[in-house]
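Give me the fold.
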Amino acid sequence: MFFLLGFLTHVLMDGGTAYGTQMFLPFTNKLISWNNLAVVDPLFTLPGILFFLVVFFMKKVNPLRRKLAAGSLALSLLYLGTATVNKFNSAAVFKQNMQEQHIRYDDLTSTPTMFTSWLWNMVAYDDSTLYLSEYSVFQQEKKVDIVAVKRHTELLKPIEQSYAAETAIWFSQGKYFVQQGTGDTLDFFITKWGRGDFTSTEPKKMFPFYSKVYTDKTGVTFKTIEPDFTSADFSKYFSLIHNRIFGH
């Protein structure tokens, strides 16, 4: 029972993030994402760790241990429930704004910004265009700025049957766009986590983590580009999140 609960809760928590979990392997490799928790969220993780450290150093016969464990579980469930409510509320705001601007789309999801459940990203798309936006649960005005990005999926046509392209598209869960890079190289941007810099419309600033898809002697392959962030970059990012959540 202990193993089963640990395994199931771990899988279910992973399914709550935008990363995507192959929950039903080996029957299907479909990625499951409920998008109600960030992949990294200290407000969800740190209280549980704190409770664990406290009860770890208490004597087993101390009745307070069980109460603290129950309190930790209740706090986690409360945060999870609040984040889920925030998700549905933000999705309603995004859909309302899309409707008011007469924008048609095939799919729309709301995902939390990294490190918080107070700022939500919209990722909507149709065959040709991707739509991006952000909404803070503390902003009073229900208006959001929507950024449209051309997807250029036609650039993948010559290589769409390759393992590299199929894998990139599968992992993106349909939330991607492509741009022509240098020479025959394509820049593949996965957008399901929302924008990293929502003050910019430049692809490599909005999505600093992306892949280069190209053909070499081994066939079609892709290379993930990971920016070399400095402490100043992280400070800037956290300041950006803080200002967007509370300042709009």
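The longest strand covers residues 129-136.
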